[in-house]
Amino acid sequence: MPVAQAEPTLEARPAIYDPPQDQEPSADRGSWKPSGLLEWFALGQTALPALLYIPGNQALRPAIRAGAFLISLLAFAIFFNRASRRARVRHPATRWLRLVVICLLAMILHPDTDSLLAGVGQTALYVAVFCPLFWVPAFVVKGRRALIRVLAILLICNGINSVVGVLQVYDPGRWMPSEFSSTFAMNRDILQGSTYIGPDGRRIVRPPGLFDTPGAVCGAGTVAALLGLVFFLEKMPWWRRATALGFSAAGIAAIYLSHVRASAVVGAGMMISYLLMLGWQGQRKRATAFLALSVGVVVVAFSVATVLGGQTVRERFMSLFESEPTNLYYQSRGVQLQYAFDELLSRYPMGAGLGRWGVMAGYVGVPSSKQIWAEIQPTAWILDGGLFLLVLYPMALIATLIWELKLVRRLPDPSDRLWASAVVAANVGTLALVGTFVPFATQLGLQFWFLEGLLHGAVATKLYAS
C-alpha cells in the first residue's frame, strides 16, 4: 500500500499534481469511442459479465467474474510504476484502508482461516475492490472531461443492460439467456423462487439483464435511472437527451420487473440525494426540472412494468407503503443484522478466519461444514476481521462521504459541483446497500471506489489549487 502521508484538508493548498484541465463544460464534445484505461475499465464493468450471456461460457465463469478484479489489481501495479513520475493524490479514506489491509494480513494467520490460498484470495478481493481509489487519480489527465466521459459510458452500458432486462420480460424466448449460473441451473427450487406470476398466469423469471443471475439487472437499473436524468438536463442534441431519458425509464422499469424492493428504495434515495445537493447549491431551476422528470419517469416506468409483469408487480411494490419501513426492513434483512451483532460478533470478536463465506469459499474449496452464510456487509466484516474490520472499513466509508459532501459544497466551478453531485448520489446508493447486500465484495463496491478515485483525480485538485 502507499506510504502514509499527511491528510489534506479542504483549505487552500498547492495542488498534489496538476493534470491538464478541460475547458469544456458540455457533455457533448469529443469522440464517442472509448479511449484510455479509465474508459475501457468502465466499459469492462458491463462487458466482462455480459460474456456469460453468450451460450457455452459457463465453464469460464470463475475467470470471467474475476476479470474486473484482476484488471483492477493489474492497474494498481501499473500505478506504482507511475509513482516515480507523478505524485499520488491523497484521500482521507486511504489511511483507514491501509489499516484494513493490515487487519486482513493479520487474519491470514487466524487459526480458523482454512488455508493460505483462502486467506490470500480474500485479502486480494478486498484490495481489488478498493484499490481504484489509489490508482485511478494517476490516470486522470483530462479533468472534468474524463469524469463526464466515464459517466456517459456507465449510462450507456447500464442503460443497455436495463433495456435488455425489460425485453427479457416482454419476449423471454428471444432475450433471456440460455444458461444461468450453476447456482440456479442446478437447483430448480432456487430458480423457481426467482420467478413470479405475470399476466395470463405466465411465469416470469426475474430479468438478469446482461448477466446470468435472475434479478441481477436491478443494480444496473439504479445507475441508469439516476445518470439518465442527470444527462437529460445537460446541453446536448435532442436525440442524446431522449436516449438518456429512455435509459432512465428502462432502468426504473427493470427494477420493478426484478421485484427487488431494496433496489427501488436505493434508486429513489439516489435521486433524492442528487435533488438535495442541487438545492444545497442553489440550483432551483435544475432541481425543479429534475424533480418533475423523476416523478414522471417513475410513474411511466411503473405503468409499463405493470403491463409487462402484471398485478404482481403492483402488489410487490405497493407493499412498501403498507407497513412501517423499520418493520419491513426487519422482516427482510433486519433479522440478519440483529444476528450479526447479537450472535456472530460475540462469537467471533477477532474474526472467524478468511474465506469462509461467499464465492471465495467455493472457489478455494473451503469445506461446506466450515462455510458461514453472509448476505449483508456487516456480517461479512465480522467474519473476515471481527470488531477491527467492522470499525475500520465503515470509517473509510464515512471519511469518503464527508469528503465528497465537502467537495460539492466548496468546489469553485459550478459545473464541477454538478458532476460531483452525480457521483456522490451514485455512491450514496452503494452505501445504502450495506444493510441489504455485500456490495464491497462485488463489482458494486469496485464501482464505488472507481468513481471516488475518478472524482478525486478529476476535480479535487482544482480545490487544492484554488
Helix content percent band: 55-70%
Tell me the number of strands: 2
Mean pLDDT over the full residue set: 86
If strands are numbered along the chain, what order do they take across the biggest sheet? 1-2
Approximate strand percentage: under 5%
Largest sheet: 2 strands, antiparallel
The N- and C-terminal alpha carbons lie at a distance of 29 Å
The H/E string reads: HHHHHHHHHEEHHHHHHHHHH
Spans of at least 5 consecutive residues whose pLDDT stays below 50 are: 1-26
Tally of helical runs: 19
Shape: globular
Alpha carbon gyration radius: 22 Å
Structural class: mainly alpha
| Overall domain count | 1
Q: Can you walk through the features of this model?
A:
The protein has 466 residues and is mainly alpha-helical. It has one domain. α1 runs antiparallel to α2. The two termini are 29 Å apart.
Short description:
The protein is built from 19 helices and two strands. By secondary structure, it is mainly α.
List keywords for this structure.
67% helix, 466 residues, single chain, globular, mainly alpha, two-stranded antiparallel sheet
Please give the structural blueprint:
Blueprint (H helix, E strand, L loop, with lengths): L35 H15 L10 H22 L11 H15 L7 H15 L1 H8 L4 H27 L1 H4 L6 H4 L2 H5 L2 E3 L5 E3 L11 H16 L5 H21 L2 H20 L3 H26 L1 H8 L6 H23 L10 H6 L13 H34 L3 H19 L10 H23 L1
Antiparallel strand pairs: 1-2
